[in-house]
């Protein structure tokens, strides 16, 4: 399905691609190639590299890894890393721990250990199941203290943060869309003068769409059990229930529409772990729209989702 037709004249669009954060990032800027557009697009792409260098748990040289190597010690961190951790802990608190950034060691034990750039692997720091309450923040000093040995995983925050920072660079253009492996932020109008049409992958029919949304000034992010897989018996996919360290099983995919990509991405992960009924209730409480599809292909929707269906 497509967005509704418009009488507006088509505009030129410039599309660029980069590989970053283990995914293909595509930026489409409406208005056509220009020096101003090219400069803004380059700055937008640069944020993906900067966030990855800061927040990757797979890179031993990243700022996040250096923090995790110092449990029990207050560590002064950059504003970028502090922002990511602070946001992740806030979502963890709101979701009652369904979303938890301390799941990194469980992810490593489940086999999600390889640096896509180098092929090197990272191991778990601890065999325990910590929680977000083991992380303390001091906003006055920008210090983070890990109360025990643990590995933070910001995968459900960092990509959304990079998308949001990239969007800041592109604001003022006629329209733009940033697509990072299916997590999307779109603003303005597309080259046809209509809202951006965002297709949502069917979780079981990989050449089909489950739904299409028309959005502008919003992010659309999906967490699916098909995105990253493992041969581990405990975790055949990467969305783990932090309370058990095992793969969450109540959903096949969760799509969230929210004002920012960081919010949409994190809330989609939390709702996936909570399962369809609790997940939809949680999304309603957060004031966002969402679609949850179960492994049996049953659909659960927030009350306002229909206004976005193209």
Question: Can you give keywords for this protein?
Answer:
single chain; 310 residues; alpha+beta; T-fold; 2 domains; 8-stranded antiparallel beta sheet; 3-stranded antiparallel beta sheet; 29% helix; 25% strand; globular
Question: Largest sheet, if any?
Answer: 8 strands, antiparallel
Q: Strand order within the widest sheet?
A: 1-2-6-7-10-13-14-15
Structural class: alpha+beta
Net shape: globular
- CATH hierarchy class name of the largest domain: Alpha Beta
Strand content: 15-25%
Mean pLDDT: 90
Low-confidence stretches: 1-8
* CATH architecture grouping of the largest domain: Roll
Helix segment count?
7
Number of domains: 2
Termini separation: 6 Å
Q: What share of residues is helical?
A: 25-40%
3D architecture notes:
The protein is of the alpha+beta class and 310 residues long. It has two domains: 13-52 and 157-308, ApbE-like domains (T-fold), CATH 3.10.520; 62-153, T-fold. It is 29% helix and 25% strand. The protein is built from seven helices and 15 strands. The chain has helices spanning 35-55, 63-68, 79-94, 104-109, 155-170, 261-274, 276-286, and strands spanning 13-20, 23-30, 75-76, 135-138, 143-146, 175-180, 183-188, 196-201, 209-215, 218-224, 240-241, 246-247, 253-258, 289-293, 299-301. It has an eight-stranded antiparallel beta sheet with strand order 1-2-6-7-10-13-14-15, covered by helices on one side. It has a three-stranded antiparallel beta sheet with strand order 3-5-4, covered by helices on one side. Strands 8-9 form a two-stranded antiparallel ribbon. Helix 5 (155-170) runs antiparallel to helix 6 and helix 6 packs antiparallel against helix 7. It starts with 12 loop residues before the first strand and ends in a 9-residue tail after the last strand.
